[in-house]
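// run 5 | inverse folding | seed 20
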């Protein structure tokens, strides 16, 4: 339900829960959430806010780039030692 609302409102879901990883998979042929954008925190709660602050400029940049693409989804993984974008 949360993913559906985020997709309908063109919002980016910030998640610390790995359950949303399956929803944003680009490998599945029949994707229910084709416009679902997500930032996934894959680090401990203790460092999550610090890592998110470090990723904020990248998230803004990816949003700007996505606006010019056909596929406007943003999928970003924020981990303890790296930040990964999936295009």
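// decoded
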């Amino acid at each position: 339900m949360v993913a559906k609302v985020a997709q309908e409102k063109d919002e980016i879901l910030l998640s610390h829960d790995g359950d949303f990883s399956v929803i944003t998979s680009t490998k599945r042929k029949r994707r229910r959430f084709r416009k679902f954008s997500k930032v996934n925190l894959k680090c401990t709660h203790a460092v999550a806010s610090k890592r998110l602050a470090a990723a904020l400029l990248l998230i803004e940049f990816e949003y700007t780039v996505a606006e010019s693409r056909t596929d406007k989804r943003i999928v970003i993984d924020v981990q303890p030692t790296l930040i990964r974008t999936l295009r």
